[in-house]
């Protein structure tokens, strides 16, 4: 076996479309439409029209069965060369970061010179499936050997069968929605309503400031008339957020509202990765390098761990492998599924008991400097089209590191199914 | 869109029945204008060349026409029709000799083919030396402008003043004026002046005169800007397409179509010049052509105009360009032979009710190219402007019927121009071979009556 040379994968840049609220301006756009638009914006930004890239990896969490080859179809509809291969990845909210890991690893191993990672999701154009009983009857009728048998089979259709089965944001094994799960964790970690609202308001204010500074001018391409994330409320305040009613969990002591939880959203994002030589040949910038990644999962079904707690385990393993401490980062990007998920993460890593009993550490993992956390806002303000969040975060962090000119950043994304995807980037 | 789809009269006038009807009721009968396509000859028909005695430019014209494979004649014959009528009047040194114009054009002017070209070459009056020569050379303008108004069938007339010593740098201009690239340019006076030897550039292939050039075009997402990007790409340039972030969607579409790049940038931002310069330095090591096309209108009569309507128009259409030019020149990013081309407007020449802000900004563009011509030339570059007349765009399509029809017809070609006509003119001025044209304003207006 020939030795494998490992090299650094560079992040050249990114492009996303502004994120829209569910049933908003993108209500009639499909996943394929949005992913194609995000890809075309990326191609335009880096002058890649007609180029054959190593691969495009992307995915969606909510997918129609017709989208069995979503990313490849988006590539075929884009300005990229049709000879660019593509594939879909699906790892819930971790999809966007997971695709980045795939592409970065292939570049590191020299299997490809460049590639695009990304993700897209729509809850406005979500698939609606046939009622399962009706589906079985139709399948059986289709397989019938005689017309009579077919008619007899179809005669079993009942009025109740016309009610379709719609996708739910719920865990199949617990029946609880993600918000209901996080409500349990919020109570366990005693995250107050006030803390959550303060955190959420800050996310909006930071994202608004980033827009004002033109930070997204080279990270975003408008789509269907939307030029900014629709969910962004620059003028929101702790007081305004405090007026919202809780929406998850038992009413008594409930703290999670529509304001301190991410809204359902539509959108797409992409990231361009390459070997240094590929970028250099084209005089393209290198914003940051992809250093390492770690994915973890927790047993939230049988154990007592929270659904969104997997990053708590992934990050310590990632730090240990890279010989780093929690404080060794200039920027932290923790996906804001819920304000309480971020606050719980910070609290757990400061907690000696959790760190000893669950992480096996002699002392707490550490404290994150809040001034370095999600400095340009995150999902609470921007919105969270599930698979598109990873690409948004990777491109944002890469640009932050580039603007600073040095240092490293940590990404942590919690995902359904008790999973967490984390990664380290380093300034170029 | 290379044909004029928006003009109903143009369609009717070129239908056998419609043509007769329009003739009887006295409506103008606009002719379809021939437009250039890659691979087409420079001029698609015989050219008659005439020379007044002691002319300096006959050889230059013959050389261009020969290289272009054109059928050049000196004998008008009696029935032959011509695509081009070219007359070298540079040797005319007194008003008595102007009769040579009559003698050459009178027998053949009616034999001009559709989309024909009339070109008179002269010596700039200010360089003619003796007073009688200066007078006679200045008189050529009146002749050419009148011929432009008499020509039919989409033919145009231009006056090209070539300074002594500039005979070897007038080729790109001659080619532009002879070819269908100048479809909507008529009644114009262009001056070509001598340049240092290293700025005399001859492209390897005149079909792609911008090959290897990096050009930034502002306002490239739509309309005339998008046409500039397409035309530049067709002519071989790599186009950096610039527009507001809000136009990013359409901008990426244009950039991908022309194989260029999209840069989302608000040109009025304080750091905009620096950001564009950083971009082209990183990606291309420099810039060859800057096209200032982005512009806005905020129309109101002066009495009704809000302060922000005034400020925004001046800022976008003029002040931002000044800042870009300062930065381009001080940064040294513009490679020899650099080109700056700005879009002015017929309104900047003539003025327009309800457009005090716009006309001020567009007249300022004229001042800008005139004032910067010398300092720009010191850096081996040129700066020029085009002044479009009525161009068929989404903006003019939204005008009320009356003003729109008036705008369309009040010119020698009885029709509006297309965005590509403006783009072709800018591409000529942006060409590395057009070093001799500097500090000038060329109208793309079909010889409009407005401001002429």
What's the quick description here?
The complex is a heterodimer of chains A (about 425) and B (about 450). With about 425 residues, chain A is an alpha/beta fold. Chain A contains 14 helices and ten strands.
Shape of chain B: globular
Element-level helix/strand string of chain B: HHEHEEHEHEHEEHEHEHEHEHHEHHHE
Q: What is the share of helical residues of chain B? A: 25-40%
Q: How many strands in all of chain B? A: 13
Largest interface (C-beta under 8 Å): A-B, 25 and 27 residues
Helix/strand-derived class of chain A? alpha/beta
**Mean pLDDT level of chain B:** 94
Strand content of the residues of chain B, in percent?
15-25%
Q: Note the quaternary state here.
A: heterodimer
Low-confidence stretches of chain A: none
Major sheet: arrangement of strands of chain B: 9-8-7-10-11-12-13
How far apart the termini of chain B lie comes to 28 Å
Instruction: Give helix and strand order of chain A, one letter per element, not per position.
Output: EEHEHEHEHHHHHEHEHEHHHHEE
Mean pLDDT, all residues of chain A: 94
Please identify the structural class of chain B as seen in this structure: alpha/beta
Point out poorly predicted stretches of chain B.
none
């Amino acid at each position: 076996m020939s030795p494998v040379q490992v090299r650094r994968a560079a992040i050249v840049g990114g492009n996303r479309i502004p994120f829209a609220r569910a049933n908003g301006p993108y209500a009639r756009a499909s996943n394929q439409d949005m992913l194609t638009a995000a890809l075309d914006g990326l191609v335009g930004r880096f002058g890649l029209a007609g180029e054959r890239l190593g691969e495009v990896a992307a995915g969606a969490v909510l997918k129609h069965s017709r989208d069995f080859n979503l990313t490849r179809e988006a590539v075929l509809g884009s300005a990229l060369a049709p000879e660019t291969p593509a594939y879909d990845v699906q790892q819930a909210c971790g999809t966007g970061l997971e695709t980045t890991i795939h592409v970065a690893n292939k570049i590191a191993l020299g299997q490809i010179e460049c590639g695009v990672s990304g993700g897209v999701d729509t809850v406005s154009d979500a698939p609606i499936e046939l009622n399962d009983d009706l589906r079985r009857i139709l399948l059986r009728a289709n397989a019938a050997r005689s017309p009579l048998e077919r008619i007899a089979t179809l005669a079993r259709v009942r009025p109740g069968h016309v009610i379709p089965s719609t996708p739910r944001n719920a865990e199949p094994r617990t029946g609880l929605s993600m918000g209901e799960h996080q409500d349990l964790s919020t109570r366990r970690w005693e995250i107050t309503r006030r803390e959550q609202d303060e955190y959420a308001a800050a996310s909006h204010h930071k994202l608004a400031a980033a827009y004002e500074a033109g930070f997204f001018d080279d990270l975003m391409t408008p789509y269907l008339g939307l030029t900014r994330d629709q969910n962004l409320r620059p003028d929101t305040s702790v007081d305004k957020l405090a007026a919202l009613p809780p929406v998850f969990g038992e009413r008594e002591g409930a703290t999670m509202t529509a304001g301190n939880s991410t809204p359902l959203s539509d959108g797409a994002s992409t990231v361009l990765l390459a070997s240094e030589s590929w970028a250099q040949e084209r005089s393209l910038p290198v914003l940051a390098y992809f250093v390492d990644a770690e994915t973890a999962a927790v047993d939230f079904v049988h154990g007592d761990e929270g659904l969104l707690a997997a990053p708590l385990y992934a990050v310590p393993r990632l730090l240990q492998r890279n010989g780093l401490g929690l404080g060794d980062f200039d920027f932290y990007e923790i996906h804001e599924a819920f304000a309480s998920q971020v606050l719980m993460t910070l609290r757990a890593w400061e907690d000696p008991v959790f760190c000893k009993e669950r992480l096996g550490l002699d002392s707490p993992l550490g404290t994150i400097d809040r001034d370095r956390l999600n400095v340009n806002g995150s999902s609470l303000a921007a919105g969270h089209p599930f698979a598109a969040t990873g690409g948004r975060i990777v491109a944002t962090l890469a640009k932050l590191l580039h603007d600073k000119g040095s240092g490293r950043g940590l990404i942590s994304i919690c995902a359904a199914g008790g999973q967490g995807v984390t990664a380290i980037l380093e300034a170029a | 869109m290379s044909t004029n789809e928006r003009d109903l009269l143009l369609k009717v006038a070129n239908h056998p029945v419609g043509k007769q009807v329009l003739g009887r009721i006295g409506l103008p009968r606009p002719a379809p204008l021939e437009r250039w396509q890659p691979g087409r000859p420079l001029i698609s028909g015989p050219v008659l060349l005439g020379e007044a005695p002691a002319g300096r430019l006959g050889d230059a014209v013959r050389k261009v026409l020969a290289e272009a494979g054109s059928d050049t004649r000196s004998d008008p014959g009696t029935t032959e029709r011509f695509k081009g009528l070219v007359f070298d009047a540079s040797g005319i040194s007194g008003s008595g000799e102007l009769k040579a114009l009559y003698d050459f054009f009178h027998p053949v002017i009616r034999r001009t083919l559709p989309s024909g070209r009339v070109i008179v070459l002269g010596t700039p009056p200010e360089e003619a030396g003796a007073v009688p020569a200066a007078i006679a050379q200045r008189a050529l303008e009146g002749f050419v402008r009148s011929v432009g108004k008499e020509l039919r069938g989409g033919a145009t007339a231009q006056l090209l003043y070539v300074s002594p010593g500039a005979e070897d740098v007038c080729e790109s201009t001659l080619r532009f004026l002879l070819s269908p690239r100048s479809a909507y340019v008529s009644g114009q006076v262009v001056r070509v002046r001598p340049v240092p030897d290293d700025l005399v550039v001859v492209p390897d292939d005149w079909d792609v005169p911008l090959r290897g050039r990096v050009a930034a075009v502002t306002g490239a997402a739509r309309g005339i800007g998008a046409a500039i990007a397409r035309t530049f790409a067709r002519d071989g340039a790599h186009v950096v397409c610039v527009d507001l972030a809000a136009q990013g969607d359409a901008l990426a579409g244009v950039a991908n179509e022309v194989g260029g790049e999209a840069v989302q940038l608000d040109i009025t931002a304080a750091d905009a010049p620096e950001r564009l310069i950083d971009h082209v330095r990183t990606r291309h090591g420099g810039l060859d052509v800057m096209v200032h096309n982005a512009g806005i209108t905020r129309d109101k009569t002066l009495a009704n105009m809000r302060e922000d309507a005034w400020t925004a128009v001046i800022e976008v259409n003029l002040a931002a360009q000044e800042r870009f030019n300062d930065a381009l020149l001080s940064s040294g990013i513009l490679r020899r032979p650099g080109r700056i081309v700005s879009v002015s407007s017929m309104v900047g020449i003539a003025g327009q009710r309800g457009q005090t802000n716009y006309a001020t900004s567009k007249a300022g563009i004229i001042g800008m190219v005139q004032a910067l011509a010398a300092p720009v030339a010191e850096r081996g570059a040129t700066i020029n402007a085009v002044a479009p007349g009525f161009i068929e765009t989404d903006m003019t399509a939204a005008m009320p019927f009356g003003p729109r029809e008036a705008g369309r017809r009040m010119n020698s070609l009885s029709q509006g121009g297309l965005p590509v006509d403006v783009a072709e003119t800018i591409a000529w001025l942006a060409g590395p071979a057009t070093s001799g044209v500097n500090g000038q304003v060329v109208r793309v207006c079909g010889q409009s009556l407005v401001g002429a």
